[in-house]
Amino acid sequence: MDKSLKIYISFLVLLLSVIVIIDINAPRPIDWNPTYSLRDKIPFGMYVFDKEANSLLKDRDIQKINITPYEYLEPLYDYDSLVNTYTKKGTFLIINGFSPIDSQSITELFYYADHGNDVFISMKSFPDQLLDSLKVSMGNDFEYTDKSRFWLANPALGTDKFHLKEGMGNGYFSKIDTLNTTILGYQGDKTKKANFIKVPYKNGHFYLHTQPAAFTNFHLLKDNHYQYASKIMSYIPKGNVLWYTKDNDNQGVSQSQLRFIFSEPALRSAWYLILLGFVVFIIFNAKRKQRIVPIIKPLENTTIDFTKTIGNLYFQEGNHDNIMDKKIIYFLDKIRQDYLMETTVLDDQFVKKLQLKTGKNIEDIQRVVYLINHHRKGHFESVESDLIELNSIMEKITN
């Protein structure tokens, strides 16, 4: 591990330690997101309601439903002509912020109520299909003030008015069928608005409530607000309670394998920091590191230098006769190698044959043969001018 890498790792460890220390000492922000999730302990989760459901719904057999109302209820219907009803009676309970119900399930809920069952729904807004069928309209112009209160219409349940504020909505029932619909609860200050009604539907009933936040952790744990939730739940008939929790269980819950890490701010920050560290490491170590390859100079061709050295040696000694002997030997050897000619006798026949094979000037060939023969016979002294002439003519013929 090189020095620079150690510095990077040390810096990242130090930075991570500082972030963890700051995060541990920092106050945790409150998550006011209205999830209505049974798993959430935040103000507008329903963790407390889930744990205290048996107390709020005494003498009821509670069963949680994690599939849609249609998927659950449709198989319970006995199509036998003698029975022609649902094999399980009770109240279908739904508590959520907004409508998670599909149209097919709404139709099934109406059919369930038609066979002598009840449906309890607490939401801030309801599906239009449900409201139209029950001849109910909603308004959203309710002005909430610090003096606004929530209470039940039945004096037998007490005359207390509860000051619920956090998370409450401004929806209410603006139009109802007064001949058939019963108002069970109100909200308001100077004017009261219906927020809890009971609507008969053939052989059953629909209970509609517009303030689901009353059942969240915040209000169940604050002051006496749990009494309001308990009084609302008291309207649910005794017997089976089919509690629809599919959306409450899954809402806001990530399916990622890293969901726990992302759910905790400290772990999430550490995860991003680790990823950033890997990116920095890759950037600074992207190039392949290896030992420097030394530059090796190629071996020089010293043949020419050697030849020049030998030539200068002979030239400086002035031994032209010896140089001419070697030049003649080299010249005749080249003739034998290149043109496959016999060089023992250098006569006119040799001259003609060499001229035919080389295509050189016959006068140059005759001259070089003349100089070679005379040098061998020793008819003239080997002086520098003779060596120069012999070398020049030989180069003309061989090049």
Question: How is this structure best summarized?
Answer:
This protein has helices spanning 3-25, 47-51, 53-56, 69-73, 103-114, 128-134, 217-221, 225-233, 246-250, 259-263, 265-284, 303-317, 320-339, 348-358, 362-377, 384-398, and strands spanning 60-65, 77-78, 85-86, 91-95, 118-122, 137-139, 149-152, 172-175, 182-188, 192-201, 204-209, 239-244. With 399 residues, it is α/β, with parallel strands linked by helices.
Task: State the separation between the terminal residues, measured CA to CA.
Answer: 64 Å
- Compute the number of structural domains: 2
N to C succession of SSEs: HHHEHEEEHEHEEEEEEHHEHHHHHHHH
Q: What's the count of strands?
A: 12
Largest sheet: 8 strands, mixed
Known CATH architecture of the largest domain? 3-Layer(aba) Sandwich
Radius of gyration from the alpha-carbon trace, in angstroms: 55 Å
Q: What class would the helix/strand composition place it in?
A: alpha/beta
How would you explain this protein's 3D organization?
The chain is of the alpha/beta class. It has 2 domains: 47-251, Rossmann fold, CATH 3.40.50; 303-398, no CATH class. 44% of the residues lie in helices and 15% in strands. It has 16 helices and 12 strands. It is rod-shaped and about 160 Å long.
